[in-house]
Amino acid sequence: KPRILSGIQPTGDLHLGNYLGAIRNWVELQETYQCFLFMADLHAITVPHDPTRLAENTYQVAATYIASGIDLENATIFVQSHVKAHTELAWMFNCITPLNWLERMIQFKEKAVKQGENVSVGLLDYPVLQAADILLYEPDQVPVGEDQKQHLELTRDIAGRVNHLFGKEDAPILKVPQPLIRPDGARVMSLADGTRKMSKSDPAELSRINLTDSADLIKKKIKKCKTDPARGLEFDNPERPECHNLLTLYMLLSSKTKEAVAAECREMGWGQFKPLLTETTIEALRPIQTKYQELMDDRAYLESVLRDGREKAETVANSTLAKVKAALGYSTPL
Ligand code: AQP
């Protein structure tokens, strides 16, 4: 089977964007691909974080992967900080990556504005660590959304530079992965503003539906979400981003086609559509929430999953790291 790799930062409660934009795609991809899926807890501290929540959030993300249908027969789930090769390779990449490659990263520029004077070196270095995460596992493809395309391009550039500087033409050191672009419609927008993405770090709780929200809370959030006064509901009208987003959510959660949803909702008003979206969301999340709770109540099992995951991940990661270190000319530890 070809291999893919992906991860999520344990920086807070996971929401419908994380599920529909990432995890649910992995569940489909695991039929065809061998998956390495991790919790990016080293990336989680590139912006100020809460040390009392980090470990718990990491377990929650692992439980969400499994509860959403990730099958441990097909996938290796591990914690980034448990596999030391990530930071070690990132250091080596730091030393061969030109600074200006990082300074032009859009995500850095956007996040740096929010951090002001306190922006950390880690935030600038975020995509270098990401390159190490990816290249250690020699994946064939990496599932990426729009926002991560530039980072994957950088990963490919770093791999190319290592191969060029230290490898031989016919024997590259690092495998250069291809992007696996996500299907359309998998960019979930904020419930408070249809032009901004749904995000864990948005201070407005009502802007997102978390995967662990109760039925009552889901109902409240959909009731309060932003809509518009136009009559009838439609996809793809740039003047109506909220309408497009809510129909997309309904389409993805009901697993209906876009055409079917467009036809079903064409004549509807918000008063009719909102209860339908509420019911659909609650029903779609119910089985995930039940399984999630079982997993969170069985810490010993989750620990065993992460221990196995670390062992499998380390075997692959350490072998790639050893290749890079040899190519860079390091002595073997005695
Ligand atoms: N709104 C979204 N729509 C579709 N996909 C999304 N993802 C995140 N938000 C949406 C995807 O989820 C994965 C997790 O990403 P991450 O935690 O590493 O960071 P992120 O993309 O920055 O996610 P958030 O939720 O917005 O977190 P914060 O607020 O902490 O930055 C990725 O595959 C991402 O594409």
Spatial strand arrangement across the major sheet = 1-2-3
Domain module tally: 2
Shape: globular
What number is the mean pLDDT?
96
The structural class is mainly alpha
CATH architecture of the largest domain: 3-Layer(aba) Sandwich
Task: Tally the beta strands.
Answer: 5
CATH superfamily of the largest domain: HUPs
Strand content range = 5-15%
Describe what you observe in this structure.
The mean pLDDT is 96. Helix 3 (85-96) crosses helix 6 (121-136), helix 6 (121-136) crosses helix 7 (149-166) and helix 9 crosses helix 10. Helices cover 53% and strands 7% of the residues. It has 2 domains: 3-186 and 299-328, Rossmann fold (3-Layer(aba) Sandwich), CATH 3.40.50; 205-294, Orthogonal Bundle (Tyrosyl-Transfer RNA Synthetase), CATH 1.10.240. By secondary structure, it is mainly alpha-helical. Strand 1 (3-8), helix 1 (16-29) and strand 2 form a beta-alpha-beta unit. The protein contains 12 helices and 5 strands. It is globular and about 70 Å long. The structure holds adenosine-5'-tetraphosphate. Adenosine-5'-tetraphosphate is lined by residues 8-9, 11, 17-18, 21-22, 40, 145, 147-148, 186-188, 197-201. Residues 8-9, 11, 17-18, 21-22, 40, 145, 147-148, 186-188, 197-201 line the site of adenosine-5'-tetraphosphate. Keywords: Aminoacyl-tRNA synthetase, ATP-binding, Cytoplasm, Ligase, Nucleotide-binding, Protein biosynthesis. A motif ('KMSKS' region) lies at residues 197-201. InterPro entries: aa-tRNA-synth_I_CS (IPR001412), aa-tRNA-synth_Ic (IPR002305), Rossmann-like_a/b/a_fold (IPR014729), Trp-tRNA-ligase (IPR002306), Trp-tRNA-ligase_bac-type (IPR024109), Trp-tRNA_synthetase (IPR050203).
